[in-house]
Design goal:
globular, 18% strand, alpha/beta, homodimer
Chain lengths: 558, 558
C-alpha cells in the first residue's frame, strides 16, 4: 500500500503554514509558509495600542498558496508522490479570533462598505480593546452565573469571544448590527474549505467555545440568553444564532469542496477535522498525555495538560480554561499560559535596542547572558510586560525590574528577563500540582524551545526538572495533521496516532543542582514581588501601584 | 586701586580646575582644567567594583598645571593683569577621600614600595570597599557612643573616613602599619601648598572631620581612643595622631611656599584657606544662606542648608551630617544628598546604550523625554542604583523600574529615571521641613542644572517649587575662591563676600500646576515603593528583597 499523507494548516499571527505529514511515522515531507498581506506583518493596528485585527481575505489566499506550494514541494522531494495520497486535513488557528459574518456565513470584511472597517475584520487573539467589557462580563457572571467562571480561572479575559463582540456592540454598532453572527477563525477556516459556512450548517469546535466563550455541555452550551441579555439585549438576541453544540477534533466537519480541490490540487471530498487552537493541537503534536505538561513557548506561552474525563479534577483557580475535549477527545483539556515570553525578549531587543543593533541582537545578548551565573547580576524581574495570564489572570499588571546598579549590563537584564519567565513557568507548574495534577514530564516546543538552549537550561535549573523538546519543529501544524489523520481513519484514535506520529528530540536539558539551589532562593523573592504587586489580599498594599499607573497613563493620554 | 583676584582650586573625581575670580564682583576671568593621569579618567579601579582610588601625584601636578594655565589665560584676556593681583587661595576637593601618609605627612603612594599599591592611594569618596566596616562602626557606636551618630543620620557610611581606614587595617595591614596617620585630600592639598603637611603642623577642616569622621567640639574632637580601640586596638592608637581641633574655612592654614610660588607664578606667602568639600564650597558659591536650599546636581547630588548656631535645631534623621561651621562659619551646615543622579542617566546611556550610540545620547533621549507628559509612560522608578544616601542612609539598596509594557521606549525610561531623581529630591525637601527647617528658595548648580532644562522643569513640576540656577557654572571653585578672598581680607566675612561675588541666572523654572497635580499622585506611589523596599518597619516585608539579592550576588561572585 502506498504511503498516506495528511495536511495540517496552521494559521498564526503573521503567517499561515501548510505541513504535509506521513500518517505512518509523522515524517514531515513538505511545508510551505505564506505571510499575510494585510496590515503590519498580517496584523492591522490602530491608534489604540490594544487594537489588533486580521483580514479574513488572508485566510482564504493563505490556504490556497500554502497548499499548492506544499504539494509542489512533495512532488519534487518524495518519489512518486501523488496528491491523492493526501487523505485528510486538520486546521489550527490563533484564538480567540472571532469575526463577524452575514447570514450566509460570509465575513463582513468582504463587503465593500466594510472593506476597511477594523471592527468588521477578525479580532485577533491579542486584541485587548475589550478590557472594560471583560470586566463587565466577569462582574455579571459573578452575580448571575458564577459557575461560568469556575472553569476559566475566575476571570473573563479581554482577549476572549464575548468581550470582543460586546466591545463591537458598544463602539461599532453599525458592524454589530450588520453581523448575523460571529465565528471563531478556527471554525471559519474548516467551514470555508468544506462549504459549510452557512450559520445553520456550521460546525464549531469545543476548544474555542469551551476556553473562550464559556461553552459547556453541563449548562446547555454557550451562556444562556438571559445572562447575555443582561449584558446587552442585542447580545441576548445573538444567543439564538450561536450553534447548540460544539465538538472535539475527532469529528469531521465535511469534505473538501470541488472548488477548493480545483484551487489546490487536493482530492475533493477528503475530510476536514473540526478546527482548534494552535496551542491545543500543538499539545497533540508534542505527544500530550496524562502527566505530560506541554509548553509551547513563543511570543507568549501556552501550558497544557490533560486529565481523563471521569477522574476527579478540581476547578483550579487561575487556569485559563478547563474544557472537556478541548485538546484530546475524552480528556479534560487544561490550559494555562504566560501572556508574554518571547515578546518580552523582543521588546528588550527591538524597543530598547541595548548596545545598538550589533551588540543588542538576541544572539549576542544570549551569549553574554550564558556567561553569567545564577544570581550574579543581582537582578530580579517580573514577567508581566503584557499582564499575567496564569495564575493571576490580570491584564492590568506591568513589568518590573529590580536590582540595577550603575554597572548593570544589557546581557544581565536579558538573563533576568529569561529567568523571570522561568519563574512564571514554575508558578504554573506549582499551581497544577497544588491542585492534584501531577507533572511527570515537561515537553517544550515552539520557536524559543527550538532555538535557544540557554532558555531551556535556565528553565530546567529554575524548575529543578528536566526539559524535553518535541521532535517536530512544527507541533501545531503536526497536531492539525494528526487530527486530519484521525478523521480520515488512518488511525483509530488520537493516542495511537500520536504514538505513531510524534516524538522527542534526543537532547534533554537536565537541571544543575547548584544553579537550582540559587534559583530556589531567587524564586522566593520572585514570589514576594508576585504576591505584593499581584494579589489584593497581600498585607503590603502594593496591589494598587501598577493599576494606578495604568489609570494615570490612560487619563493623561486622553 | 587695581582689581584683586582670588584663586579657587577645585579637585573633582576626574579632573582639577583652577578658577581666577575678581573679588569685587565675582567675575570669573580665567579657568583651567586638567584631567588626572592615573587610572581610568583619574580613578584607579580594581576587580572589586566597590574599589575607587586616586593617585596623589595627580593632586600635585594638577595644581601646578592648572594654576599656570589660568594665570596665562588671565594675562591674555585681562588688560594689564599681573599675578601679584592674586591675593588668596581656596581649595575644595571630593570627600571623604583620605590618604595614608608617613611621619612627614608625605603620601605613602610616593614611596617606591607602595607606588602601585591601591591601599596606599587616596581612597576616593565613592570607594565602597568598607561596607562591612561601616556596619561595624555603626553597630559599635550604637552600643557605646550613640551621640556620635545623631549628627550623621544615624548610620556611618562606607564612603567615610574610618570605614576606609578600618578596611585598610583589615585587608592591607602592611599599608596601615606603614602609615603614620591619614589625611583627607581636602586637608592635604592646602598643607602641600603651604608646606604644613607635617602631622603636627597640619590644619584640618571641620567640613571633612565633622561630616565624615564624627568630629565635634561637643565631645572633644574626633571619636575617643576607647571607642576607636574597641573597633581595633591599632585604630585606637591612631587617635593620638589625629589633630585635636578642626577649623572652618575662614581660617588660613598658611602662606603659599616660595617653591610653589616659583612653580606657578603666584606671589609667595598669599594665604591659603582651610580646605573643604566641593559641595560645601559649592553651597557658598551658590549664595547659601538660611532658608536657601542649594542642590549641587552632578553624578550624585549634595543638598545643603545652613541654620544659624544658637537657633533650635533637631537631629534630623537620615541627613548625612549636621556640623557646626562646615559650610559657613557660625552656622550649622546641614548636608543631605542623593547617591546617584547623573550617574543613573549615564548608566542608562553608557551601559545600556539604548537605541545605539546615535539615538541613545543624552541629547536625543532628553528630546524624546521632553515630548512626554507626566504619567504618560506608565513607568515609575526608584533612584537607588547607587543606594540611598538621604533619607534611608542605606547602600544596600538598588534600582527599580516598574510599569514596562511590550512597547516601552528608551525615552520613556529616561524620563522615568529623571522623575525618580526628582522624587528623591522631594523626599529630602520634605525631610528638612518635617524637622522645622523651612525651604524658602531652591538654588541649583552643577553640570545637570546647567545643561538640562528638562531636568530642572521636572524638578519644579515634581516639587511644586520654582527652581533657580546659580549664576556661576563653577560654584565649587567659586566658593573656594570666596574662601580665599575672606582669608586674604578682601571681604570681612562670608555673607559680604557672597553678596559681592555670587548671583542667580535670570531664567527661573516655574512649576506647572497641571503637571504638579499628576506628580503628586505619582509621588504617592513612589513613597509606597520607597517605604516598602527601604524601611524595615513597613508591614509588607519587602525590605529584604534588594538586600538578599546583593547577598546572593556577593556569594555567587566569590
Amino acid at each position: 500500500m502506498s504511503a498516506r499523507y495528511t495536511l495540517g494548516l496552521d494559521y498564526g499571527t503573521n503567517s499561515v503554514r501548510a505541513l504535509l505529514v506521513n500518517t505512518a511515522n509523522g515524517r514531515e515531507v513538505a511545508t510551505a509558509v505564506w505571510g499575510y498581506e494585510h496590515g503590519q506583518d498580517g496584523v492591522i493596528l490602530g491608534r489604540d495600542p490594544n487594537l489588533a485585527r486580521q483580514h479574513p481575505a488572508d485566510y482564504v489566499k493563505g490556504a490556497e498558496v500554502t497548499i499548492k506550494k506544499a504539494l509542489a514541494e512533495a512532488r519534487r522531494t518524495v518519489r512518486g508522490f501523488q496528491p491523492d495520497q493526501v487523505v485528510g486535513i486538520g486546521v489550527d488557528t490563533t484564538g480567540s479570533t472571532p469575526l463577524p459574518v452575514d447570514a450566509q456565513g460570509r465575513p463582513l470584511a468582504f463587503q465593500k462598505r466594510f472593506a476597511k472597517h477594523p471592527a468588521a475584520m477578525a479580532w485577533l487573539w491579542k486584541d485587548h480593546t475589550g478590557v472594560a467589557e471583560a470586566a463587565e462580563i466577569t462582574e455579571k457572571a459573578r452575580q448571575m452565573r458564577p459557575h461560568y467562571l469556575a472553569k476559566c480561572g475566575g476571570t473573563y479575559s479581554s482577549e476572549w469571544f464575548f468581550s470582543k463582540i460586546l466591545h463591537c456592540r458598544r463602539t461599532a454598532p453599525e458592524v454589530f448590527d450588520a453581523a448575523y453572527t460571529w465565528v471563531e477563525c478556527a471554525d471559519w477556516v474548516p467551514a470555508m474549505l468544506t462549504g459549510t459556512e452557512a450559520p445553520d450548517k456550521l460546525t464549531v469546535g469545543v476548544c474555542a467555545a469551551g476556553h473562550k466563550a464559556m461553552y459547556s455541555d453541563d449548562w446547555g452550551g454557550y451562556p444562556d440568553a438571559e445572562f447575555l441579555g443582561a449584558l446587552d439585549p442585542k447580545l441576548g438576541e445573538l444567543r439564538a444564532r450561536l450553534r447548540p453544540k460544539a465538538w472535539a477534533v475527532d469529528k469531521s466537519v465535511g469534505g473538501l469542496t470541488p472548488e477548493w480541490a480545483a484551487r489546490t490540487g487536493l482530492p475533493a471530498g477528503i475530510p476536514v477535522a473540526v478546527g482548534a487552537f494552535d496551542a491545543h493541537l500543538g499539545g497533540v503534536g508534542s505527544g500530550i498525555a496524562p502527566g505530560t505538561l506541554v509548553k509551547i513557548i513563543g511570543t507568549s506561552t501556552c501550558d497544557m495538560m490533560v486529565v481523563p474525563v471521569g477522574q476527579p479534577l478540581a476547578d483550579i483557580p487561575g487556569l485559563c480554561g478547563i474544557v472537556n475535549g478541548s485538546i484530546l477527545p475524552g480528556y479534560w483539556g487544561l490550559e494555562a499560559g504566560q501572556s508574554a515570553v518571547g515578546d518580552i525578549f523582543n521588546w528588550f531587543v527591538n524597543y530598547l535596542q541595548p548596545g545598538g543593533k550589533k551588540l543588542g541582537s538576541h544572539e549576542e545578548l544570549t551569549k553574554g547572558a550564558a556567561r553569567l551565573k545564577p544570581g550574579e547580576s543581582g537582578l530580579l524581574a517580573l514577567d508581566w510586560n503584557n499582564g499575567n495570564r496564569t495564575i493571576l489572570v490580570d491584564q492590568r499588571l506591568t513589568g518590573l525590574l529590580l536590582g540595577q546598579t550603575l554597572y548593570t549590563t544589557p546581557a544581565e537584564i536579558y538573563r533576568a528577563l529569561i529567568e523571570a519567565t522561568a519563574f512564571g513557568a514554575l508558578t504554573i507548574i506549582n499551581r497544577f500540582e497544588e491542585y492534584g495534577v501531577k507533572v511527570e514530564q515537561i515537553v517544550n516546543c515552539g520557536g524559543i524551545a527550538e532555538k535557544n538552549p540557554l532558555v531551556m537550561q535556565i528553565y530546567a535549573d529554575v524548575t529543578g526538572r528536566p526539559m524535553k523538546v518535541s521532535r517536530s519543529a512544527q507541533t501545531c501544524a503536526l497536531g492539525a495533521a494528526i487530527a486530519g489523520a484521525v478523521v480520515a481513519g488512518a488511525h483509530p484514535d488520537f493516542p495511537s496516532a500520536q504514538k505513531a506520529m510524534t516524538g522527542l528530540k534526543p537532547r534533554v536539558f537536565q537541571p544543575n543542582p547548584e544553579a537550582h539551589a540559587v534559583y530556589r532562593q531567587l524564586y522566593g523573592l520572585y514570589r514576594k514581588l508576585h504576591d505584593a504587586f499581584g494579589t489584593a489580599d497581600w498585607t503590603g498594599n502594593l496591589y494598587d501601584v501598577m493599576k494606578t499607573l495604568i489609570e494615570i497613563r490612560n487619563r493623561v493620554r486622553q
